[in-house]
User: Fold these one by one.
Assistant:
Number 1:
Amino acid sequence: MTRTIDAHQHFWRTAAQEQPWRQDSHTRLERDFEPADLEPELVRAGVDATILMQSVDEPAENQRLAAYAVDPRVAGVVAWLPLRRSAEARAELDGLGLDKLVGVRCLVGTDPLDWLADKASLTLFADIAERGLAWDVVPITKAQTDAVLQLARTLPELRIVVDHLGRPPLETGAWEPWAGQLHQLAGCPNVAVKASVGIDALTALDRWDLSVIGPYLRYVVQEFGPSRTMLASNWPVVLLRASYETAWDDLGSLLRTEYQSEIDRLALLGGTAERWYGLVGELLPLAGEESAAASHS
């Protein structure tokens, strides 16, 4: 039976690490967020398990993630790797003691990603793919998107997850270049997306408004389809503008409206996360999803 999985959430203790991405206006996030805080939210929302994500770029973050991973609600962990520095990343990866490791990432912001084309980086990402791990990233700029596209095409065996809808411009209502970039990414069968809202977009919004978020979410789901879209809360970051229950129910209701079949709904609510992060055992092959991507070429 397919589980309902929140594909993106964080835990942290504010005194344990600096969070350079947190601004003065983010007072709601200036406290500890731990499994005991999330558990009642998951119960109320009917969520069975989560994907725990890194939120700080430092080795100690992986130690914290390993400790949190013992929580039975955590189905998988996306750990930190210093991906810009291939030798250090490989050493960190080899030393990770995470039984629930399903993916890796580092925070990139709007920094250039031209290093993805380096030979050492390609070798590292090939190794990441061989280990059955996904790479999570939020490509925002055109140059970042081009770099991710090149990597996806060079290493079709690498599973790439675009977090937070690829940062749509919710605050302006603009469509391009975001829509074109997501269209290109959807054309790669080894790229999936998370139906969640990131901290930059949440900060730019005055309030949680489904009428603003909805058109972008619908576009992404139409482009990627239920087999490559995962519902995710981005808790506790989402608390800047909405409660867990409100965000989960609102995003989920849009997805359920877009897709009426039970198979599609189960995929969006957990099946895709199960498969993409290898939570159901051996990863299913990407071949066979090429036909879905053909319409985007």
Number 2:
Amino acid sequence: MSQQDRPPTEEELRAAYEGQLKQLRVDDVVIQTIVSLINIGGRRAGLAPGSEDERDPRQLRLAIEGSRALLPLVADQLGPDANAIREALSQLQLAYTRIAGEGAPAPTAEGAAPAEPPAPKPGEPGPAQSSGRLWVPGS
């Protein structure tokens, strides 16, 4: 049996894997992660043909938030491709808004929309800040 006919040994596989890791850059992995998140987000939005039954607003939101968090880290390396990724992300955000709107509370009996929460008084934190999700410098 020649060396070409036998399967690689575990040591050979490990050496090949190490060789690939040496060439791999972190920004390449971040970019691939963003692309993967946008692709799976499209499926969770039901945008891909045949994926309508895969709609999952929670997963879609996670894909959007993950992409939004990672994109600034590699936008410079993407160059003009950053605009295409931003456009795809915008499409996912629009789809999320549409899907989330489908689950909105039904109008009241009079046909009016449910009342909005009261506006905060001057000097009090608004709903985003009081939820702890809004970062405010100095706090």
